[in-house]
From TrEMBL:
It comes from Desulforamulus ferrireducens. Pfam families: GyrI-like (PF06445). Coiled coil: none annotated. InterPro entries: GyrI-like, Reg_factor_effector_dom_sf. Residues 24-158 form the GyrI-like small molecule binding domain. This is GyrI-like small molecule binding domain-containing protein. Gene3D superfamilies: Regulatory factor, effector binding domain. Signal peptide: none annotated.
């Protein structure tokens, strides 16, 4: 079976330019996700705690049955791990503005500010509600990539002003 690479198949969604752009994100089916209100961001160089929803896009062959089988198998391998918080769901992000941030996570502030300036200049405003929030899509492995080379897609949901 050939490996599916979301970045290659959906370049407009996962490999934006360093100049902000507007994208209409189609419904994404089969996302594995869980909420963790005490996620320790130190894995990504951040020492404070966050309230996160972590979403991982799944290949089409991951049906609800395959997902449940995987959760059962993982629970057996890792006793004590609460797999009940993981779920397989669809997600519609819709109209967004996005930009590629290159560099350390702690240096995202100016990139986010530039994204917000772009959004306003195009006649939109950021509207965060429900799961339509500030999204960061991590394309680099921080354990293997120098901080100045880390690539992160920053995406904000938008609506017309």
């Amino acid at each position: 079976m050939a490996t599916f690479d979301c970045k290659k198949a959906y370049k407009d969604l996962y490999l934006p330019k360093v100049k902000p752009s507007i994208v209409d994100v189609p419904p994404l089916e089969g996302l594995w996700w869980f909420e963790d209100n005490t996620f320790d961001g130190s894995v990504m160089g951040r020492k404070d705690e966050f309230s996160w929803v972590i979403m991982i896009r799944q290949p089409e062959f991951v049906t609800p049955e395959v997902f449940e089988t995987a959760k059962t198998s993982l629970a057996k391998k890792k006793p004590g791990l609460d797999t009940s918080i993981a779920r397989l769901e669809d997600f519609t992000e819709g109209l967004c503005a996005q930009v590629m941030h290159i560099g350390p996570y702690d240096d995202e502030g100016p990139t986010v500010a530039a994204l917000e300036e772009f959004i306003a200049s195009q006649g939109y405003r950021t509207e965060m509600s429900g799961l339509r929030q500030h999204h960061e899509i991590y394309l680099s492995d921080p354990r293997k990539t120098a901080p100045e080379k880390l690539k992160t897609v920053i995406r904000h949901p938008i609506v017309k002003r």
